[in-house]
Design goal:
By secondary structure, the chain is of the alpha+beta class. The chain contains 4 helices and 7 strands; from the N terminus they run E-E-E-H-E-E-H-E-E-H-H. This is Gamma-glutamylcyclotransferase.
Amino acid sequence: VWIFGYGSLVWRPGFEFTSRKVGFIRGYSRRFWQGDTFHRGSERMPGRVVTLLEDCGACTWGVAYEVRGEQIAASLQYLNMREAVLGGYDTKLVKFHPQDKDAEEPILALVYIATPQNPSYLGPASEEDIAAQIIVSSGCAGHNIEYLLRLADFMRYFCPQAEDKHLFSIEEALTSILPCLYYTEESLEET
């Protein structure tokens, strides 16, 4: 079984796997439209994490993990809790295209997608509003800023040829807001 990750699974799968491949799926765009009140936020201050939006002309880069034997049941049980129960995601099968030049045919992979019907779905917002929400959110897996920056780093280092304007514009909005926050905090400490 192959499992495709496009958010925190790219750097922290949390389950044992046999192999991993960087690559992409077609027909979806990655968006910070899913709320998170557990891993990267709280009930009071929900974080923003990514989901996939059907988009016929787009592709989303990430990592596919191959799980075999006893790894299958353990990984699916873990992901069901992490992504479905706590995250509000549904599962789908998609065609994963490995980055390797000499790769074989596309691989069928399981992917978790949060739909607008789940209670944690936040939907669209401006890059600045998303960045502002990410800055103030933190959950049991860490700060929401870490989630955004690790995902941007993954794209930069493992998929430099790929474009993800949504992701990088939120990162840019975050870095333009952060100096203001540091300045404000230092100013408050001095007074």
